[in-house]
Design a protein that fits this description.
Radius of gyration: 24 Å
Number of strands: 9
Order of helices and strands: HHHEHHEHEHEHEHEHEHEHHEHHH
Structural class: alpha/beta
Shape: globular
Largest sheet: 6 strands, parallel
Helix content: 40-55%
């Protein structure tokens, strides 16, 4: 049979795709295997392989890692798990962004060291399984990893509260291998508002302040991708205006199909496309099916919708596995990715080139543009930014009880307002 023969050699795949609508599921899965051997399947967001004890299904070997994870992420280490090494391999995942996430409640307390611990665990995980995983910090390293049959592991930090409002922390994260920052999570920072708070009247119209704009520009200089999932509408618009490089939504879907602030409205889809960016569709049932029950078909509806509004060059995949409790039927974990592509193969409106773009080419293009902007700024001798937030702006935040700089600033202000003691000029203050 021509179709079966075509799947054994890459050159025959385009011809085989002409007959794919009548192909069996097994035949379409063979075509998917061929396609994903050519292009890495890149998942833009996996919260973490929380069940590290079973990451390679070897409880004895991984026991210490499981204990470490309970220490660095006690809020999440006993939850569901959609990810482990066997399932990543069955799912033909070529590159995975691991998101270092710490709760918003840690802001102004220990968010920074907790984030560092999560980054450390991911790096150690990669070092532990070099035969399967490789750390990637560039487009070139993703492509090299894929050519060697390894899963490229990339780092993202989910939530600007992990910076502690310090650009030095941002730079340190970059040096540790972090290649995207989600500007907010479910809480505001002193420099950006979140989608979770934008309905509050006091936050209407608020987005990035001057320091927030500095964060975006410093990310451009470094070569770090700006991620707008979780951000408020105004933060999104401000970041799109400020950023000199394309941006992404690492795990968001279409708001027109499911009306939640975590999804992307049509006008923003068009703006992202006009600036060369990317929306990576999330698989959380609430964002896909508007409730706890969703299916693979619902995911395809969002992919088709974003393709229609923004264009095929601006849609990708960012499932959010291990950070979501309700997954679509047919896409229960990372091993199911080939079934998504097999279903798309039965739709004649999806060409082979379209599927390659969805799998990873779109993300590689965005990442390559981010790297090019960084190199251009470096050629212009752009220097690290030194912007800081005036600590007095933190007076009515939770930082008020734990910021040394704020207490010092208030103390100096109080001293300036005190009446001067009586006496001869020059006497006061002398020892």
């Amino acid at each position: 049979m021509v179709l079966a023969a075509a799947t054994s050699v890459g050159v025959g795949v385009p011809l085989a795709l002409q007959a794919r609508r009548s192909a069996s599921l097994a035949q379409r899965l063979e075509l998917v295997t061929s396609l994903l051997q050519q292009v890495p399947l890149i998942d833009g967001h996996n919260d973490f392989p929380w069940n590290l004890r079973n990451f390679v299904h070897n409880e004895v070997e991984d026991f210490d890692f499981a204990a470490d994870l309970r220490q660095v992420a006690p809020w999440n280490s006993s939850r569901w798990s959609h990810t482990d090494l066997p399932r990543l391999r069955r799912g033909m995942v070529g590159a995975q962004f691991w998101a270092a996430y710490v709760p918003c409640e840690s802001q102004w307390m220990d968010a920074v060291p907790m984030s560092v611990e999560q980054i450390d665990v991911v790096r150690r995980l990669v070092e532990k399984y070099p035969q399967y995983l490789s750390l990637a910090t560039s487009v070139q390293e993703i492509e090299e990893s894929h050519s060697r049959g390894r899963i490229a592991s990339l780092l993202g930090v989910e939530g600007g509260h992990s910076l502690g409002a310090r650009l030095a922390v941002l730079r340190t994260f970059y040096q540790s291998g972090v290649r995207y920052l989600t500007l907010t999570h479910t809480c505001d920072t002193p420099w950006a508002t979140s989608a979770s708070t934008e309905t509050e009247e006091q936050n209407a119209g608020k987005g990035l302040n001057d320091f927030g704009r500095a964060v975006v520009l410093e990310m451009n200089r470094l070569g770090m991708i700006v991620d707008l999932s979780h951000t408020s509408r105004q933060t999104t618009l401000d970041a799109l205006e400020v950023s000199r490089a394309p941006v992404i939504f690492s795990h968001s879907s279409a708001r027109a199909l499911c009306n939640t602030t975590r999804n992307v409205p049509d006008d923003v889809l068009r703006l992202v496309a006009s600036r060369g960016g990317l929306v990576m569709v999330n698989f959380y049932s609430e964002f896909i099916g508007c409730g706890p029950n969703a299916t693979l078909v619902n995911v395809i509806e969002h992919l088709n919708y974003i393709r229609e509004v923004a264009g095929i060059d601006h849609v990708g995949l960012g499932a959010g596995y291990d950070g979501i409790n309700w997954t679509p039927e047919g896409l229960e974990d990372v091993s199911k990715y080939p079934y998504l592509f097999a279903e798309l193969l039965s739709d004649s409106t999806w060409t082979e080139e379209d599927l390659k773009k969805l799998a990873g080419q779109n993300f590689l293009r965005v990442f390559r543009s981010v790297e090019e902007v960084s190199r251009e700024l470096s050629s212009r001798q752009a220097t690290p930014r030194e912007d800081r937030i005036d600590p007095r702006q933190l007076l009515y935040t939770s930082a008020a009880r734990c910021s040394w700089e704020l207490s010092e600033a208030l103390s100096r202000q109080q001293q300036l307002q005190l009446p001067q003691p009586e006496g001869e000029p020059g006497e006061q203050g002398e020892l």
